[in-house]
Amino acid sequence: MHFPSLPRLSFSAFAVLISLGGATLLFGDNPAIEPAPRNTWMDQHNRLLQVVERTPEAPLIFVGDSITRNWNSRGRDVWKERYADLPAINLGISGDKTENILWRLQHGALEGLSPKAVVVMAGTNNIHRDDAEQIAEGVEAIVDEILERCPDGHILLIGIFPRSSNPRAPERVKIKEVNSTIAGLAAEPRVEFLDIGDLLLNEDGSMDRELFPDSLHPLSEGYVIWANAMAPQLDEWIGQP
User: Fold this and answer.
1) Which residues are the signal sequence here (predicted)?
2) Are 96 and 122 in contact (CB under 8 A)?
3) DSSP, residue by residue, the chain
4) Is the pLDDT of residue 23 over 50?
5) N or C: which end of the chain has fewer CB within 10 A?
């Protein structure tokens, strides 16, 4: 069988194509958008599924990592005052990256729910592994998943909280880049973006140690600040308890 001849490439041109192709494969790989479970929390995930099954009428859902999870501890008082009677469901799990949250959303975390509002904060645990673009794509994947699964709900997307005591730390720079990008997700009519980072810092941009003793997780006053900042939008969507 005769095949038509193909254009001949010089070795250097071929090498460039191979190099570019490899780069495409490499840079096209984004772990932040690949749903992934964590063996360490499967029991916790299953317990949350039981909460979801028992509370199908919940109009407000919180989705995130340890900062969200800590509404159950450091933010307990404000949760009890503002959200418990709605009722609200806390789907935060400590240590979760965007891909872990995405996996949970695809495996029952929103099953049977029709919330009016979903509060989302994700990405801080990706900071040391992924670049800003990858993290933003991970957050976007979460938002898209929720929009699809909650067609009548709105999303209040919270900017990643500042971390590190140094205002010029690489983590701070990356977080600003991520937040700047994901703010654009509010172009979707059912999404609003809220960045309260400046409310959690001193005037010079340094971390308030009385608010963030570990430069990452806020104490109870931080949850009061967070709740106050969300109140106008949540009241509009779901009303007051």
Assistant:
1) none
2) yes
3) -PPPPPPP--HHHHHHHHHHHHHHHHHT--GGGS----GGGHHHHHHHHHHHHH-TT-SEEEEESHHHHGGGTTTHHHHHHHTTTS-EEEEE-TT--HHHHHHHHHTTTTTT---SEEEEE--GGGTTTS-HHHHHHHHHHHHHHHHHH-TT-EEEEEPPPP-SS-TTSHHHHHHHHHHHHHGGGGGSTTEEEE--GGGGB-TTS-B-TTT-TTSSS--HHHHHHHHHHHHHHHHHHH---
4) no
5) N
> One of 29, 198, 214, 235 is an active-site residue; which one?
214
Average pLDDT of span 94-123: 98
Is 217 considered catalytic here? yes
Active site residue 12: no
Active site residue: 66, 94, 165, 215, which one?
Answer: 66
Q: Is the whole-model pTM more than 0.85?
A: yes
What tokens were used for 28?
A: 């096209």
240: pLDDT confidence band, cut at 50, 70 and 90? low
Domain 43-238: state its class: alpha beta
